[in-house]
Structures are given as C-alpha cells and as structure tokens.
Amino acid sequence: MNTRSAVICGGGGFIGGHLAADLLSKGIKVRVVDVKPTSEWYQVHPEAENIVADMNLRDAAFAAVKGSDTVYNLACNMGGMGFIETNKGLCMISVLINTHLLMGAREYGAKRFFYASSACVYNGDKQQESKIETFLKEEDAYPAMPEDGYGWEKLFSERMCRHFREDFKVPTRVARFHNVYGPFGTWEGGREKAPAAICRKVIEAKLSGKHEIEIWGDGQQTRSFMYITDCLKGIHKITDSETWHEPINLGSAEGVTINQLVDLAEDIGGIKLKRNYNLNAPKGVNGRNSDNTLINKVFGWEPDTRLRDGLEKTYKWIYQEYMEKYGGKVAVQKPAPIGAHVREKATAGAR
Ligand code: GDC
C-alpha cells in the first residue's frame, strides 16, 4: 500500500503527533484532526493541515476522512488506569468516533483504515496472576471479558472494523497497543500512565528533597511498555500490509513488575526512594505482557527498544517539561476530572 495522503484522527495526542511527524518526513500529505484546541496538542506540525473538530459528530468525521487514502483512527477518550477506571461511560462514547469514521471511509472509498485498539480488550480472567509470563495471545480476547468501559468500547470497535471490511470492503487493519510511552506524552493531570507517572514522581521527590514515592498497588503487578518509535514502526507494517487484516498485538514483550519500573526510574534519576504502596489506588489487571508470536510470524519483527533506553529518553523529556512549567518548584498534582465536562479533552489513543 502506497499512501500519498493520510488523515490522523486524534493527531493532537501523543501517538498521533509522532505519527504525523513520521508521515510528513516521508513526503506524505497529512491532515491532522483533533477535538482539542491546537494550543493543547502535544505536537503541532505547520506543514500538515491542522483541523479542530469533534469526530463524535457524523459530519465532522466525514469531512475528516474525505480525500485521504489512509485513515488512522487514534482518536478516543483515554488515559492510564487512574482515568479509565473512573470514566467508563466517557470512554464508551468514543464508539461514535470509530463508527462515524468507518462510515465516512466507506462513503469515500478509503484505501486503508487503521484502528488503534488496546491490550485492554483481553479477557480479565487471563490476567489475574502478577507474573511477567502473562503473555496474551490474540485469541485471548475471547470469550469476551475486557476491561470495563474502555476495553468494551475497543473490542466492539475492533469488531465493527471486521464487519465493515467483510461486508462493505473497507480495508481495515487493527493493532492492539500495549502501554505506549515516550516523549511528548501525558505526564501529569490524571491521564498519565505508569512510565510517565513514575518518572514525574521521581523528579518531584528529587526536587522536593522528600525522598519518598507513592506507588499504586503493591508494586508486584506486571506490565510491558512499548517505546513510541516501535509503535510507529508497527503501525506502518500493519497498515501497509496487503495480507494481514486481523487484530494483532503491538507491544513489547519485556515484562517488568511496577517495582522494577520504579527501580529503573530511580536509577536514571540517581536516587533511592522510600516506597509507599497505595493499595486503594486504581490497579487494573495483575499481570499483562504481549505474546509476540504472531507479529514475529507475520512481519518478522517485534518491538525491541529496551525499557531502560526508552525510559531514559522519556525521563529527560519530562524533566525538561517540568522545569519549564514549574521552574524547579514542586507542583500539587490534582486527580483527573470525572464526567462529561472533560469531553473536550478527548485525545489520541496511547495505549
Ligand atoms: O496506568 P497504567 O500505566 O495502565 O498502570 C500500570 C500499572 O501501574 C497499574 O497497575 C497501576 O496501578 C500501576 N501504577 C503504580 N503507580 C501511578 O502513579 C502508578 N500512575 C499510574 N498511571 N499507574 C501506576 C493501560 C490503560 C491504557 C491502555 C493500556 C494497554 O492499563 O490504562 O489506556 O489501554 O493499558 O496496555 P495499565 O497498563 O494498567
């Protein structure tokens, strides 16, 4: 598939901003659409056509899609566990975005439609053990028991992609992202995921001189984290594939406990902290890792950036952002707002 023009829906967000830069560097004509005002986009690329619109609405979604070969749907209301556990209804409304974009892709004959799904579609029963070896295979999404709210929306939308492909010949491709991190992502405000949150907390401990850190859960829960450049490589392979169209894992298989993630961040920050475990905080599943058998078989590749390397770059970027924003003072972090009033914050998926 040779894309000449692309629209990135949710391109004001973390992954979308990086994807726009990447496509522009390849000489592709790029339209970026996001509901947030451009002042809140993580990256704004002046070479792109930048549009502020709410793709929950049919007309805006159709206008977004019109005239582009490839549609990337990264738009949804999302965040880390602290957000999705307390905003289930809001997360489910994103079903409108994918529905309208798929209908638009059908109407205007898009050559490709990429949908950013998530590891949150996997059956919760298979993620009960805090083990690094909790590798999830693509078939583990069924029988369906995904993450409540957010995961159900993702699973439904995946399914809709399948039926639009089968019934209406919209050439859909679906990746299941496993916790993506890197520079130009959310690091405060309540939607941040563990890698950015832990980096920020280490930085705050250093700045405040209070050498303690709050960790959600008991720190034994396991995850794998995918660096943004791997995510981009995978998006291209999956989108451009002429043969593979089923949902496929896009994640790192380097599993760690959250305690090990904290070890790495402490090491990068050059500090050791007293750990306070908050067992009442949002925790999500006990164990989750990406089984990469299929992606290796289909594409002869899997995400391979070491967590230590990616986290170091992320830490440095967050440190700079922190200093720029707060000038070396420690900010009081507020929890994410709950409810419909955050609709305008809908942003790119960054699973
Ligand atoms: O938020 P998250 O990165 O999402 O959390 C990973 C684990 O880290 C959780 O068990 C959480 O309790 C723990 N944790 C410890 N301290 C903290 O300060 C903290 N902040 C955060 N955020 N977590 C902390 C994600 C979803 C995404 C997406 C991906 C797909 O779930 O939130 O939207 O779909 O999964 O892989 P996580 O990995 O549970």
List keywords for this structure.
disordered C terminus; binds guanosine-5'-diphosphate-beta-L-galactose; two-stranded antiparallel ribbon; globular; alpha/beta; Rossmann fold; seven-stranded parallel sheet; 351 residues; 11 helices
Task: Describe what this molecule looks like in 3D.
It is a single chain. The protein has 351 residues and is an alpha/beta fold. It has 11 helices and 17 strands. The strands form 6 sheets. The protein has a 7-stranded parallel beta sheet, sandwiched between helices. The chain has a two-stranded antiparallel sheet with strand order 5-17. A two-stranded parallel ribbon has the order 7-16. α1 packs across α8, α7 crosses α11 and α9 crosses α11. The radius of gyration is 19 Å and the shape is globular. The relative contact order is 0.18. The site of guanosine-5'-diphosphate-beta-L-galactose has 25 residues, from α3, α7 and β10.
What's the helix and strand layout?
Blueprint: E1 5-9, H1 14-25, E2 29-34, E3 49-52, H2 58-65, E4 70-73, E5 75-76, H3 81-84, H4 88-93, H5 95-108, E6 112-118, E7 135-136, H6 150-168, E8 172-177, E9 180-181, H7 194-208, E10 212-216, E11 222-224, E12 226-227, H8 228-240, E13 248-250, E14 255-257, H9 258-269, E15 274-278, E16 289-290, H10 293-299, H11 307-326, E17 347-348
Parallel strand pairs: 1-2, 1-4, 2-3, 4-6, 6-8, 7-16, 8-13, 9-12, 10-15
Antiparallel strand pairs: 5-17, 11-14
The structure holds guanosine-5'-diphosphate-beta-L-galactose.
Guanosine-5'-diphosphate-beta-L-galactose binds next to helix 3, helix 7 and strand 10.
